[in-house]
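Researcher: Please translate sequence to structure tokens.
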Amino acid sequence: MTSRSYAGKVNAPEFPPDLEWLNTNQPVAMSDLRGKIVILDFWTYC
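Model: Translation complete:
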């Protein structure tokens, strides 16, 4: 294996302040998620 450089890496933006959150008592900030595994589940109502 070789080590790769992630030059040009872009940090994820903060969440918009007016989001509606589920299963949490307060809004989540990106700094709260640093160092954690995050699963993104994208879904819509049809």
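Researcher: Any highlights?
Model: The mean pLDDT is 82.
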